[in-house]
Amino acid sequence: MNKLIIPCILVIFVLWILLQLALKMSIFANPLNYFIVIILLFLTIKMAKEN
Question: For the CA atoms of 38, 43, 44, 45, what is the dihedral angle to 10 degrees?
Answer without folding.
Answer: 90
